[in-house]
Amino acid sequence: MNTISLFDQENFLAGTETRLGSQAVVLRGFAQAYVADLWPALQTIISEAPFRHMVTPGGQRMSVPLTNCGSLGWTSDTRGYRYTSNDPDSGRPWPTLPAPFMRLACDAAAQAGFAGFTPDACLINRYRPGTRLSLHQDKNERDFSFPIVSVSLGVPAVFLWGGQRRGDRAERVPLFHGDVAVWGGADRLRFHGVAPIKESTHPLLGTERINFTFRRAG
Ligand code: MD3
Ligand code: FE
Fold first, then answer.
1. Which 8-state DSSP code applies to residue 24?
2. How far is 156 from 113, CA to CA, in rounded Å?
3. Fold of 6-215
4. Distance from residue 15's CA to the centre of ligand 2 (Å)
5. Sequence ranges of the domains in the chain
6. Is the separation of the CB atoms in 183 and 190 below 8 Å?
7. DSSP category for residue 61
8. I need a labelling partner for 106 at 20 to 30 A (CA). Which of 30, 114, 155, 212 fits?
């Protein structure tokens, strides 16, 4: 056991801001007040569009299963990465972006200086101990002038915050339950990833971490 428990770290930071770049910030604990409304809406989404492992264009099964809500959903298969209106597994449109999801994304963007952000896509990633997301850029969106809002729930993760080039040294930034990160402008195309998740337990999510990534994709 750590000297300072995860619970203490999460609550010690709540209400503070961690600046990662000129236009990238982590709003610590910002989502905590929204969780009671997000949670039931998330259960509805995953009953309609369950988490699934997609395949990269190179044919590798992704270790992090995902789903989406919103009018566009991020999709990957051997034909490439793209946004689609329909869930490729069911053929139906992705579940609608629930009002509390939209509220959280708009409020966090405004707090970070991006007033008027209206996402049309929310990618939902599920991490279990040992899973990771290797360094990449988010560049499947039409217009990079919109920010991205990322919400962390459950067990902590070490976020890898790289530079404009793949080889640039990455900073390691811990993300806790309720943290919301907002990235835009000059920081929008920074390389980033998630280090392998360590085994720990969260009261609401058990050993899992769930991340919402809100984007304007279309
Ligand atoms: C920094 N997801 O799905 S979100 C992804 O925790 C993704 O699931 C991670 O990266 C996760 O593409 C990290 C944080 C994030 C999202 C977009 C960014 C960081 C970013 C865009 C530019 C710079
Ligand atoms: Fe990403």
1. E
2. 26
3. Jelly Rolls (2.60.120)
4. 24
5. 6-215
6. yes
7. B
8. 155
d(CA 95, CA 187): 29
Q: Which two tokens stand for residue 35?
A: 């969780």
Write down the pLDDT at residue 169: 96
For 148-216, the DSSP string reads EEEEEEES-EEEEE--SSTTSPPEEEEE-TT-EEEE-GGGTT--EEEPPPPP--BTTTBT-EEEEEEE-
Q: Are 182 and 25 in contact (CB under 8 A)?
A: yes
| pLDDT tens profile 127-167 | 999 999 999 999 989 899 999 999 999 999 999 999 999 99
**Ligand lying closest to the C-alpha of residue 123:** 1
Nearest to 25 by CA among 144, 190, 165, 164: 190
Q: What is the pLDDT of residue 2?
A: 56
Q: What is the dihedral of CA 80, 188, 52, 121, to 10 degrees?
A: -100
Note the pTM of the prediction, 2 decimals.
0.95
Q: Determine the pLDDT at residue 175.
A: 97
Residues of the chain with pLDDT under 70: 1-4
Is residue 194 lining ligand 1, measured as CB closer than 6 Å?
A: yes
Atom 12 of ligand 1, residue of closest alpha carbon: 138
Q: Is the CB of 122 under 6 A from ligand 1?
A: no
Q: Is the CB of 83 under 6 A from ligand 1?
A: no
Report which ligand 1 atom has the smallest distance to the Cα of 148: 17
The ligand with the least distance to the CA atom of 190 is 1
